[in-house]
Amino acid sequence: MGAVPAWPPRSTPRLFVETSLAPGALTLTGAQAHYLVSVMRTKPGDPVKLFDDATGEWLAVATAVGKRDLTLDVQQRLRDREPVPDLWLVAAPLKKGRVDWMAEKACELGVARLVPVVTRRTVVDKPNTERLRAHMIEAAEQCGRTAVPEVAEQVKLAALLRDWPADRALFFADELGGTPAAEAMRAHPGPAAILIGPEGGFDDEERAAIRAHPAATGIALGPRILRADTAAAAAVAIWMSVAGDW
Fold first, then answer.
1. Both ends of the chain: CA-CA distance in Å?
2. 16-52 as b/e, with b when 16 or more CB fall inside 10 Å?
């Protein structure tokens, strides 16, 4: 007797929805319906996995498929929303392709919040936060996450430091060097953030202001010079490893 196929299959499409999920009918329109109907060729009876960044991941089954919409029967919760480590990534906006990559990796690695910060050498006037969130959602869909990082509004460095919460460590990736990252992170457990500068780095006045902040610790990411997006992914990975999330 052959093995019973897994249900739902591993190939089941997976989508984030803004609606809080519960058992019952749900109609999708727009890009999500187009993806399921035209790209995935979803038919009545086919399964779809849904998650909403609040209640977890759910199994739904297509019940009606139109040209521009699709109705699903949300049937059962497969998983609760995952616990999210309390880590922010505070980063100067980069050029379009690189900041998109950084947002994707922040989501994949488990960051709770992305905070764009303006510095004197920032090359992008204002990041498109809706686009960054869309990249994070796509990463969460593909990587099985049930949570999506928050994308904060852009803030200037001086305001960020002025209003910094006293109970959150700020690990400053300084290209001029600092305490080895893992060592610094082990010494300051709990809520944290990683601060990454622009392509040109922080200027001397900014660096001095950051280092003078009581919550800040300068960290080093090894002997090689890293581009800003690489530094962000590396620092987050080190923090996750130290925190035990890996």
1. 39
2. bbeeebeeeebebeeebbbbbbeeeebeeebbbbbbb
Q: Are 88 and 194 in contact (CB under 8 A)?
A: yes
For residue 148, what are the contacts with CB-CB under 8 A and spacing of at least 6? 16, 53, 107, 133, 136, 137, 140
pTM above 0.70, yes or no: yes
Domains of the chain in start order, with CATH, are 14-79 (2.40.240.20), 87-243 (3.40.1280.10)
Residue 10 CB: number of other CB atoms within 10 A?
5
Contact between 218 and 178 (Cβ < 8 Å): yes
Residues in contact with 117: Cβ distance below 8 Å, sequence separation at least 6, in sequence order: 90, 91, 92, 154, 155, 156, 157, 160, 195
Q: Which amino acid is at 108?
A: E
| pLDDT per residue as tens digits for the range 160-218 | 999 999 999 999 998 888 999 999 999 999 999 999 999 888 999 999 999 999 999 99
Instruction: Give the Cα separation of 116 and 97 in Å (integer).
Output: 15
Query: How many other C-beta atoms can be found within 10 angstroms of the C-beta atom of residue 81?
Result: 16
Amino acid identity of residue 159, one-letter, is A
